[in-house]
Amino acid sequence: MKSIVLDRFGGPDVLALRDGPALVPAAGQALVRVAAAGVNFADTLMRRDAYVVTPPLPIVLGSEAAGVVTAVGDGVDAGWVGRRVAAPLFASGVHFGGYAEALVIDARFLVALPDAIDDATAVALQAQGLSARHLVIQADPRGKSVLVTAAAGGVGSLLIQLARLAGAATVVAAASSAAKLDLARSLGADAVVDYSKPGWDDAVLAATGGTGPDVVYDSVGGDVTKRCLEILAPCGRALLYGALNPAEFTLSGTDLVRMVFKNQWLGGFALVPLLDPEAVRTGLAALFDAVARGDLTVLAGGTFPFSRAGEAHAALESRRTVGKVVLVPDAG
């Protein structure tokens, strides 16, 4: 079995495709032949040892995949064998093992894939789709003005659409290039702003009638987060998520006083603590249905064979991609 092994920290070139022993599912597990594996920004941070925790080496990165069940361990329904499934390793608390031709997963977290959902789409709707769905649940946008940063990314592009489906009055999308802004507008954003240019926060205020956004979903961090909080509407809610670097952001006493007297709320968002097998099944089923109905568009950010995993990481780190970056086994 081939897998992409990380045995030292460094740049994208440290990812190596190697042969390894075949996997055997233990009791309660399923063995899945991987058809597509998702690449997340957190994977690039782990590769550089810049994540919140240092992964043990050697290790196979990747926390989400889609494929076909080929075997099951004791106590697992044999009816899973031969079925196409989503394999959200992260939901079971396992954040490694996805960049491989096969993986084992707690069978309670398997989700059957409808025929209308291809493998790449199934991968995109796991960590990123479930994050977008639960962000909307955590900070309800119904009837409110919403600001989505990193709006052309995997989560951001879905947030634009899910906020609109949930009844947001105004959706403002913020990104860092004209092409990404055009994309955000095509997904349903009412207004777009380029946060790489001075005065972008004033543009958000203008787009929200001068009051600022009622809800902010932010994954950029640094000065962008600080500006988001400064323009947040009275009684507004800001949710921070993703692989933010806390060292790049400070909240002063003045900021806190302003938030207190404006009745504003600042919260963090982490997906995994919100998930159990039922939440995963329900959430993915809702997302799959939305795609099948044509209500939700999943953006493809590029597909790379396992042998070019380093290129996939480099593309994601360069911020050139939009949507979901996916790895697939090499042909033959």
TrEMBL record:
InterPro entries: ADH-like_C, ADH-like_N, ER, GroES-like_sf, NAD(P)-bd_dom_sf, Quin_OxRdtase/zeta-crystal_CS. Pfam families: ADH_N, ADH_zinc_N. The keyword Cell inner membrane does not apply. Transmembrane segments: none annotated. One of its GO terms (cellular component) is cytosol. Residues 10-327 form the Enoyl reductase (ER) domain. Keywords: NADP, Oxidoreductase. GO terms for molecular function: mRNA 3'-UTR AU-rich region binding; NADPH binding; quinone reductase (NADPH) activity; zinc ion binding. The keyword Kinase does not apply. This is NADPH2:quinone reductase. It comes from Oharaeibacter diazotrophicus.
